[in-house]
Structures are given as C-alpha cells and as structure tokens.
Design goal:
It is a single chain. The protein folds into two domains: 4-91; 163-544, Porin (Beta Barrel). It is elongated. Helices cover 28% and strands 39% of the residues. With 545 residues, it is of the alpha+beta class. The strands form three sheets. Strands 1-5-6-7-8-9-10-11-12-13-14-17-18-19-20-21 form a 16-stranded antiparallel barrel. A two-stranded antiparallel sheet has the order 2-3.
C-alpha cells in the first residue's frame, strides 16, 4: 500500500506541471486578446476563459494538496515519535539486573511514564511480555532479511543464466570449452584424435606433439509450448571439427560442424523425436575427454553416427522402479560415403535405394547402488543400391549393458554383428568390397561382414575422481575379403581388424570444471599387409557451461 506522503507528492507534481504548461501559453493568450474581434477570435477568447477557470481549479487543488501534505508530515512525525517511545519501552523493560530489579538508568523513564507504583509480579509480567514481543519482532525481521537475500540471489542467477530469444520461450545455452594437448608415437589417420593406426611414412619421425581446441562444443536447447499434453523442446549442438580452412596455421581455425539437432515431444510415458541424433540402436560410448569429435573407438567396435531420424519411444513403468523402454524409427540410409561435391548433395547408395533404414530397440533398467542397471537389444536393416542394380541388404543385431558391480564399480559396453553397416562405423568404416572396378556395371559387389564391440570398467574413487579402462575391437571378416577382393580393386587399404585400449583418470574439482589424462593404444591389421601401432598420451582441460 502506498503511503499518504507518496500520494500527495504525486498530486503536487501533477499540479506544478499543469501550471508550467499554462505559464508557457500566457504570452500567446495576451497576443490573441489584442487582435480584432472575429468569430475565430471569439472562440479563442472562450477557450481562454475556460482555461483560466481550469487554472483557478488547479490552484485550489494545489492548496488542498499542500494541506494534505502538511497533515501527512505531521502524521509521519507522530508515527516516528510513537515508534521511538515503543523502542525506549522495550529497551527499558529488558534492562534487568541479575537480581531481577531494573537498573536505575532504565527505571527512570519507566517511572516517568508510569507514576503509579507497580508490584514486582506485574513488572516481571510486563518484562516477559516485552521480551517476547522483541523476540517476535527480531524473528520477523530476520526472516524478511533472509527472504530478501534469497530473492536477490535468484534474480542475480536468473540474470546471469538468461538467454534471450525472439520468442517468449525459455532457452538454455550449454557446452564445453576443451583444450587437448597430445603426444603421439606412430602414425594414424588423424593426429589429434586418432581412430586407427597407419604405417609410418618413410623419412617421417615416429613421435609428434600438438594441441587443439577444435573439440570444444556449443549447444542450445529451446523449451517450447505444450502441445496435446506433450512438452515440446528443440536442441542443436556444434563443434569445430568440420575441417580446416586453407590459410596459414589453418589447423588452429577449425570449421564449425553440426553434430546433433532436433525436435522432441515428451508425454509422461511416450516421446517423439525428429532430427539429427545419435544412433538410438547403439546409445552408449566409452568415457573419454580425449575424443569428443568422434566417440572413443568409433572405428574399433563402437557403432556411432549423427544421423537424421524419426523415432517413437514408449516407457513402461513396473514395480521396484523397473522400466521397459521400446524404441522404433526410421533413419537416413547412409553408407559412409564422403560427399562427391562440396556444395551440392548427391545420392549415397542407401538413399539411392528409395527407402530409409529401419531400427528397433528395447531395454530394461532399474537402479542398483544409485546407478542404472540396464540391458538392451536392438536391430537394424537398410537396403543399398550401388548403381547398375547392384543391391546390398545391410543388417545388424546389437546389445548393450550397464552393470553396477559394486557401489563404486560399473561395467558397461556394447557388442554387434552385421553386414554392410559401414554407415554405422562398422567394418572400420566400410560397407562393401568390390571384385573389380566399382564403376563397371559387371563388377560384383559384396556387403562386408563384421563383428565387434567394446567394454568399459569404471571405478568411481570419489565424487570428483574416477578411473576408466576400456578394451575395444572391430573385426571385418578377412577370410571373406581374401576370397573376393584385393586392395587394388577397392582403391584403398582394406583393414581386417582394428583393436584398441585406453585408460584415463578424470578429475572434477567442480561440476563445471574437468581435468583428464589418458593413454590410448591402437593396433590396426590390414588384410594384405602388416599391422601398425600408434600410442597417444592426451591431457584435457575443460570448462563446462
């Protein structure tokens, strides 16, 4: 409620403003009255008379406001005096000696206020009542201060975390600024996050050292309206591992790259997801901050891909916190071919078939030791057309698991078996092998059989410190390759097996700060040549936001 003084001040300000406006028009009024009489001048004179009458009313109003203002000031003085007297009484009533008698300094004001003598019991009762009132007042003041501080902190937090959008819907910015420093012994397909080993070129040194920030990520999530009872949201995530500009030191200027993005509708037990997302048929990956641009062991048994897809999910909740999840959807039918044009999109073998790929997965989970215990099985199918009606049916079966062995020890991993699924990173990134020139209509083609997987053991020493050990392998069936194709027919070296292992220590002094050190070893086995080995030591430092 506004105080009388505030109201009076506003009325006074309005009146003064009106007087100033009237004063500025006075010269114009005088000049108008000096002009010869005419119908227009007569109307002006009438308007001036009305204005003068309004001025007189405003003056009267100002006088009333002044009177009310003076009365408000008097009331405020009286309230201050009453408050001062109340404080003095509270202080005098609480100034008690150890024997229970009032001190002389405190007794004098009380005697002046109350000339009649009081009994000891009455004085003690007044003292207790005053002390109780003081305690209540202090408690209310303390609660008010705490509420004000809490409100201020919430306002500050909202201001710091606010992301403005053109719409009224809430947005959340997230990501990681990640610095990786690394030393490699041996050659590989990629210097900063290698996926498989290669022979060391003649004359090249065995060891190398470098650093990069191109695995940093930026994500944006938008929370939209409720549609048909479902909460809508959208997200997009980028990194800077999309290549290098052709400029001096271009390796430090990583090009932004789309990882994932999409739209979701979430009901209580059902979700619809449309967009570019991770493979729902292979949802897990090893824990590593040395390899974010591609998941760890992406070509060594860890199926992965950021693939456009449309899927439906439904969750069945049972007793004992058990959940059964069923997922089914269609995916862009990719075959891991690079784009043949840097600006215009051309067909890949899966898209040339005229139909999408299909996936289905079901999983069961329940909490154990405050960690999820889960088991999942999945299937995948797609059809590919490699021109001249050379069709390949690609398929795969997968399984994944997370098993808390102890409160601080967890075993997780995945396994797959399939054919022609290079589009999911299997077969070390190869879907088919050719028995001759792939551009010839008479060259036979075969889907590459492969199997692989990975397993991780995680030891959570403390809430801030963890140790991870991973072993992985992808095995393209070399016997099938030897009986059908050669490297010359396929223009690149055919890898028969890719094996890897890593160990890392991850320290999080805060939830938004991470330090990691990792050792990784990769050994790759070409079908028609000797194996190659590369080792990497990686130091990672990152801030999450």
């Amino acid at each position: 409620m506004k105080s009388p003084g505030t109201f009076a001040f506003r009325r006074t300000a309005a009146a003064v403003t009106a007087l100033i406006l009237v004063g500025t028009r006075a010269p114009a009024q005088e000049s108008a009255s000096a002009r010869p009489a005419s119908p227009q001048n007569e109307a002006t004179v009438t308007a001036l008379e009305d204005l003068q009458e309004q001025v007189r009313q405003l003056r009267t109003l100002v006088e009333e406001v002044r009177t009310e203002n003076a009365e408000s000031r008097s009331e405020m003085q009286e309230l201050r005096q009453e408050l001062r007297s109340t404080r003095e009484r509270l202080i005098s009533s609480t100034a008690v000696r150890p024997s229970g008698e009032l001190s002389a300094a405190a007794a004098e004001p009380k005697q002046a206020a109350r000339p009649e003598p009081q009994t000891e019991s009455a004085g003690a009762g007044d003292s207790a009542a005053s002390t109780q009132n003081t305690s209540r007042l202090d408690s209310r003041v303390q609660k008010l201060e705490e509420a004000t501080q809490l409100l201020g902190s919430k306002v500050d937090e909202q201001y710091q975390t606010k992301v403005e959008t053109a719409s009224k819907y809430h947005a959340r910015l997230s990501g990681i600024v990640l610095m990786n420093a690394f030393r490699n012994d041996g050659a590989s397909n990629n210097l900063d996050f290698p996926d498989f080993a290669q022979p060391n070129p003649p004359g090249s040194p065995i060891s190398s050292f470098g650093a990069t920030l191109r695995q940093s990520e930026i994500g944006l999530e938008i929370f939209g309206p409720t549609l048909a009872g479902a909460k809508s949201s959208a997200n997009i995530q980028l990194d800077f591992a999309g290549g290098f500009p052709s400029t001096p030191n271009g390796v430090n200027f990583g090009i932004a790259r789309l990882q994932t993005g999409g739209f979701r509708l979430d009901w209580q037990h059902t979700s619809v997801v449309a967009g570019q997302d991770t493979l729902f048929v292979s949802p897990l990956s090893p824990t590593s901050f040395a390899s974010l641009a591609t998941p760890a062991f992406a070509y060594a048994g860890n199926l992965w891909g950021w693939t456009p897809q449309l899927r439906l999910e439904h969750r069945f909740n049972f007793s004992d916190q058990q959940t059964l999840t069923v997922q089914a959807g269609i995916l862009d039918n990719l075959s891991w071919e690079p784009p043949y044009n840097p600006f215009n999109r051309t067909l890949q073998a899966g898209e040339r078939s005229g139909q999408p790929a299909y996936g289905i997965r079901t999983s069961w989970s329940r909490p154990v030791f405050d960690h999820p215990l889960s088991m999942g099985v999945a299937g995948y199918y797609g059809r590919q057309n490699w021109t001249w009606d050379r069709y390949v049916d690609s398929w795969a079966g997968m399984t994944d698991w997370q098993i808390p062995l102890l409160r601080r020890l967890t075993l997780s991993g995945e396994f797959y078996r399939g054919r022609g699924i290079g589009g999911l990173g299997a077969g070390i990134g190869r879907a088919v092998v050719f028995g001759g020139d792939p551009g010839s209509a008479i060259t036979p083609i075969r889907g590459l059989d492969s199997a692989g997987g990975w397993s991780q053991l995680k030891l959570q020493l403390t809430s801030k410190l963890e140790i991870n050990g991973v072993f992985a392998e992808d095995n393209a069936f070399a016997s099938d390759v030897r009986s059908f194709a050669t490297d010359e027919n396929n223009f690149i070296t055919i890898l028969g097996r890719n094996r890897g292992g890593l160990g890392n220590i991850i320290y999080r002094p805060r939830s938004d700060l991470v330090f990691s050190t990792e050792f990784r070893r990769l050994r790759s086995f070409p079908v028609y040549s000797n194996s190659s080995v590369t080792n990497q030591v990686n130091l990672a430092m990152g801030i999450l936001f």
